Amino acid sequence: MNTLSDYIEQYGLLSLEKQDKLMLLVGEHMHEIDLENGKIRFDDVEFPFQALGTESDNTLTWLWAWADEQAEVSEDLLDAARQMRDWGKREGLREFVVPGVDLDKADGLAFSLIAGEVCKASCFYRDAYEGGSLFVLLFDNDIDRQPPFDIARLSRQYAYLISRYDLDHRNALLSYLNAKGLSPLSHGSQITGKLETGELLSAEFDKAGRLMSLNGEAVDGESIVTRT
After folding, report:
1. How far apart are CA 95 and CA 112, in angstroms?
2. CA 216 to CA 222: how far, in whole Å?
3. I want to staple 124 with a disulfide (CB 3.0 to 4.6 A). Which of 5, 73, 77, 112 is the partner?
């Protein structure tokens, strides 16, 4: 039976690549969210969204949008949250089935990293407000069309993922490369491969599967090195 960490390993880098695409598109931005019509605006661009759930700074809990009786979200914006509940039932993951979860067990980022892939969203977004945060999934072709990871962006987001969650570093990188159809080579403690940008990477891991170093060569010839 797979655990929450297993799915963060499988989907984490794929979802963080989508987050990078959103940032490439909107950059530094102001945003407005329309809970009635299901639209979120970043300066001069607007995207439809689905509500996933909320984090409370007061109770330190996550509440799924489908279970939030006080939410001002219309019913048609709950499809993704309900899809994740059904998916959680099939996968045997209690965190997706119960109305709420303590944040020390799972947080909105973890749920969003998984939901972004399961629901085939373009990315997710955290809308912070006084007392908590709303997490939503965004859907738009303009986000999808943004450039994929280059070696520098991959290195940065990979370091963030493995510092945030207790997971198998090796599996997290392999899952991303395989899902993208990049045919990585895995031999002993090393993984080598080529990104969609044509950039080369080489990652070294210890016996526990934890990252020791990530080396890459950017298209412009600059070397990228990440060490833990």
Report:
1. 13
2. 8
3. 112
Same domain? For 221 and 110 the reply is: no
CA distance 213 to 192: 12
Neighbours of 91 (CB within 10 A): 18
Separation in Å, CA 207 to CA 49, 113, 170, 203, 227? 42, 26, 10, 13, 16
pTM over 0.90, yes/no: yes
Estimate the share of the chain in helix, then strand, then coil, as percent rounded to the nearest 5: 35, 30, 35
Residue 64: closest CA among 29, 111, 25: 111
What are the distances in angstroms from CA 66 to CA 89, 133, 164, 223?
Answer: 15, 16, 27, 47
Q: How many domains does the chain have?
A: 2
Please identify, among 144, 171, 205, the residue that sits at the C-terminal boundary of a domain.
Answer: 144
Per the CB < 8 A criterion, the answer to whether 31 and 40 are in contact is yes
Question: What is residue 223's three-state secondary structure?
Answer: strand
Question: 214 lies in which domain range?
Answer: 151-227
pLDDT tens, position by position, 91-140: 999 999 999 999 999 999 999 999 999 999 999 999 999 999 999 999 99
Spatial distance between the Cα atoms of 209 and 172, rounded to a whole number of angstroms? 10
